[in-house]
Amino acid sequence: MPAPNQAALDFLLTRRSRPAKTLAAPGPDRTALEPILTAGLRVPDHGKLEPWRLMVLEGAALARLAQLAADLGEASGKPPEQTAKGVSQFSESPLCVAVVAVPRPTDKVPAWEQELSAGCVCLSLVNAALAAGWGACWLTGWPAYDAAFLTGLGLGPGERIAGFVHIGTETVAPPERPRPDLSATVAWVSE
């Protein structure tokens, strides 16, 4: 029988992302963020390709990206509420870690698996931040798919956003929500 880590299992069974609108300053400083980033990068990575990179966005960078989202949303004719949502995820965020998927050329690991690894980084960052006592959530939104926004963020050719992980001080605990029904989502295959 394996030796369980009950505290870790209890955490995973009760973890809950915190809505971005419930996060406030302060966010973690660099000393507090370092173990979160370190834990966040401990993900499956077939071939040790590290097909991702992180950009820690704070202060003036967040304000610049909020303005960029405002300008691009208006210029492209997005509905005001959609533009506002893209703006607020940067203007109201105490700290944001952009997880950039950077697929590496190789015949051994398909690009899809490399992108999944970048997604694992997003969830791992959220879980590490929550375990460290911060509120955190993983978002994308239209800025994550807008070529001009990605250029303004500093992404290169072939790079894409796996997620924006927002981290800050939790102001309100969200209510529990219904969870997936195992009987509806799990198939037991024995033969």
UniProtKB/TrEMBL annotation:
CDD domains: YdjA-like. FMN binds at R15, R16, S17, R42, H46, W138, L139, T140. Its EC number is 1.-.-.-. Its cofactor is FMN. Pfam families: Nitroreductase (PF00881). Residues 24-168 form the Nitroreductase domain. Transmembrane segments: none annotated. This is Putative NAD(P)H nitroreductase. It comes from Frigidibacter albus. The lineage of its organism: Bacteria, Pseudomonadati, Pseudomonadota, Alphaproteobacteria, Rhodobacterales.
